[in-house]
Design brief:
Rossmann fold, seven-stranded mixed β-sheet, 17 strands, alpha/beta, single chain, six-stranded parallel β-sheet, 2 domains, Quinone Oxidoreductase, Chain A, domain 1
């Protein structure tokens, strides 16, 4: 089945209209008309081959909201016209220890990501959500709460689960003090979710112009991380810190803010290794960890939680024709806080 998409043909080419093949509907498959697709910074990294390993043509997009148009004969969880989501994963081996533990993102045989992964059905590569439609195994399709704005829900499929999972895994709860480092696409979701968990939320930022926004999003305090005096006031006081910063920074300045047995989890991916002073961990028995999105079960849990608390992303809705401009703005952090593509506009370029 030929469909329209936006694809990059090489690392320096702008995204442009491109026809791709989608597989025929299998017995366990769900065919989805894509309504909205969020724009993740990892889309840009992959398109421009900044992480190496990109195969072209590349059709990015892993924050997909759509409407079911057809289901396979064995599909039980979905029916035509259901509003559904597809996140960063579209398949896994289903049989390894991690998959059995509902942690498909850590599949030992290799998770199949929504784009730029080997596609066992076609023998080629997976193509993502910058397209009219997609066919996905029902096990990797998610129910969307009906009270949430659909466009603003799209980024939950990556930014939402990326921040929810470490908060949940580290058992953040009411009354705890939680820090969020950085107030971007990930950080603004971290603030909303940590606040909904009942935490006292402190945002760390180097941008004074983000103070008002951090408070609007639910932060109880905002700290200028360049101000040594402000940082010192918070020594040994945090139960948990979520670091969303993807550029080089001094991680030790935050590790020493943790209480004994506190944890800092890194979800931003700086291009160069971070230098950790082991003493920052030893003195206080502190923990430094990482986290990668979440499994399908936890992603559904996150969506349900957001439905209960009416949590969505702050977005700027764009037509597909502005995607290259959006990428340039993303590099400059010129968005509050996630771009989302209205995929209905893809029809207009035919």
């Amino acid at each position: 089945m030929k469909i329209l998409s936006y694809a990059a043909q090489n690392a320096t080419a702008p995204l442009a209209p491109f026809k791709i093949d989608r597989r025929d509907l299998g017995a366990e498959d769900v065919q989805i008309q894509i309504l909205y697709c969020g724009v993740c910074h990892s889309d840009l990294h992959t398109v421009r081959n900044e992480w190496q390993g990109t195969t072209y043509p590349c059709v990015p997009g892993h924050e997909i909201i759509g409407r079911v148009t057809k289901v396979g004969a064995n599909v039980k969880k979905f029916k035509e016209n259901d509003i559904v989501g597809v996140g960063c994963l579209v398949d896994s081996c289903h049989s390894c220890e991690n998959c059995k533990d509902d942690l498909e993102q850590f599949c030992t045989k290799g998770p199949i990501f929504t784009y730029n992964s080997p596609d066992k059905h076609t023998g080629g590569l997976t193509y993502g959500g910058y397209s009219n439609s997609i066919v996905v195994d029902e096990a990797f399709v998610l129910h969307i709460p009906n009270n949430l704005d659909l466009a603003a829900t799209a980024p939950l499929l990556c930014a939402g689960i990326t921040t929810y999972s470490p908060l949940r895994h580290n058992k953040v709860t009411e009354g705890q003090k939680v820090g969020i480092v950085g107030l971007g696409g990930l950080g603004h979701m971290g603030v909303k979710l940590a606040k909904a968990f009942g935490a006292h939320v402190v945002v760390f930022t180097t941008s004074p112009n983000k103070v008002k926004d951090a408070l609007r999003l639910g932060a109880d305090e905002v700290v200028n991380s360049k101000n040594a005096g402000e940082m010192k006031k918070h020594l040994n006081s945090f139960h948990f810190i979520l670091d969303t910063v993807a550029v080089q920074h001094d991680i030790n300045a935050y590790l020493v803010l943790l209480k004994r047995d506190g944890t800092l989890t890194q979800v931003g991916v700086p291009p160069e290794p971070l230098s950790v002073h082991v003493g920052s961990l030893i003195f206080g028995r502190r923990n430094f960890s990482g986290s990668l999105i979440g499994g399908i079960k936890e992603t559904q849990e996150m969506l349900d939680f957001c439905g209960q608390h009416n949590i969505t992303s702050d977005i700027e809705l764009i037509p597909i024709q502005k995607i290259n401009e959006a990428y340039d703005r993303l590099v400059k952090s010129d968005v509050k806080y996630r771009f989302v593509i209205d995929m209905a506009t893809l029809k207009e370029v035919v």
